[in-house]
């Protein structure tokens, strides 16, 4: 049996313009839910799943993140930082983790997604899968990443922002992954999407099309994407079952 994953990467470089005045002074991952930064929930949950080393990708108002977490020792992990200078999509930012990860697999999470801490645990055991991605069941998957799976719950395809007529799958990309080092060769070959960005989902699709195993993991418990003030208000009103 392979060793469990002990490294993680958190993408926390963005301002989060949809948060309006809430991110004038803070990067979005440092906005608080019930008195605690979103990023702190993520770090604590990863720690509890056995993660010992975390790379935080910072950018906008990065000093706020650095001063809060420092080297991570207060939170039981080793934290290092890398700056994303160019905001050109979710694909190329993964390349910033290459040196940190070396030859090791790693969990990757966006810095604005809250889940029950138990959701990270399966992601530390990828087994023979080239990568893992989390999914949520949804009535409408047209607003984000529509994930198409086979009977073994493995990814066949993933499509961003399809129309309601096109998105004929109940599975929605939940934004937390486990990658093995092969991901770096795929993101290196990315071309800009029609939206003018390098998109991580294009690399994930390429992995599946090469016949490599991309295992889906359903998140059944608490999950929320703090995408705007309304989502933040809901998270504060209905407290997550988090630490």
Quick description:
The relative contact order is 0.19. Strands 1, 4, 5, 6, 8, 9, 10, 11 and 12 form a 9-stranded mixed sheet that branches.
Describe the structure.
This protein has about 240 residues and is α/β, with parallel strands linked by helices. The chain has a single domain, classed as Spore Coat Polysaccharide Biosynthesis Protein SpsA, Chain A (Alpha-Beta Complex), CATH 3.90.550. Helices cover about 20% and strands about 25% of the residues. It is built from 6 helices and 13 strands. The chain has helices spanning about 40-50, 60-70, 100, 185-190, 200-210, 230-235; strands at about 5-10, 30-35, 35, 55-60, 80-85, 105-110, 115, 130-135, 145-150, 155-160, 170-180, 215-220, 225. The strands form 3 sheets. Strands 1, 4, 5, 6, 8, 9, 10, 11 and 12 form a 9-stranded mixed sheet that branches. It has a two-stranded antiparallel sheet with strand order 2-3. The longest helix is centred in the first third of the chain and has 11 residues, at about 40-50. The radius of gyration is 17 Å and the shape is globular. It starts with 6 loop residues before the first strand and ends in a 6-residue tail after the last helix.
What key attributes describe this structure?
243 residues, alpha/beta, Spore Coat Polysaccharide Biosynthesis Protein SpsA, Chain A, nine-stranded mixed beta sheet, 20% helix, globular
What is the topology?
Elements: E1 7-12, E2 32-33, E3 36-37, H1 38-48, E4 53-58, H2 62-69, E5 78-83, H3 98-101, E6 106-110, E7 113-115, E8 131-137, E9 145-149, E10 155-160, E11 171-179, H4 183-188, H5 200-209, E12 214-218, E13 223-225, H6 229-237
Parallel strand pairs: 1-4, 1-6, 4-5, 8-12
Antiparallel strand pairs: 2-3, 6-11, 7-13, 8-11, 9-10, 9-11
